[in-house]
Amino acid sequence: MNEKTRTVADSLVETVHFVRLNHLNGAGRLFGGVLIQWIDEVAALVGRRHAKTNVITASVDHLDFIQSAHQNDVIVVIGKATHTGNTSMEVRVDTFVELMDGSRKKINRAFFTMVALDENDKPTPLPKLEIQTKEEEEEWERANQRKAERKRRKEIGF
Question: Keywords assigned by UniProt (predicted)?
């Protein structure tokens, strides 16, 4: 690896949160806005680790709430780079409830587009993503498909 490339592992981020009373909505479940904040922070950390500069969230392409979380649940949020362009990158963020036995149950998945910024807050080139495994290669290809779909939606004004 050189300074013009980074691996997926170089930017991997995992955070852990304990769901407290102030994180709950009126139905007694983890408030979606709190979870979105946590996953946006993870996406930003992934972007900063990869770009070695500040980044901003340009879009959240996909956000699936698969299951809910409740008070006293342990939430694990894991983010990783899946694709890079010139100044932007895709970051996948998966969220899990960690059970007492250490196993994890997925509750959320999101895809973010992060843009690298220079010292004047202008988009700046970022290192390429060095693909090292078959799984990373497959994720790169799926990211290309999502990128094409984002472009198509933009063209039709979605």
Answer: Hydrolase
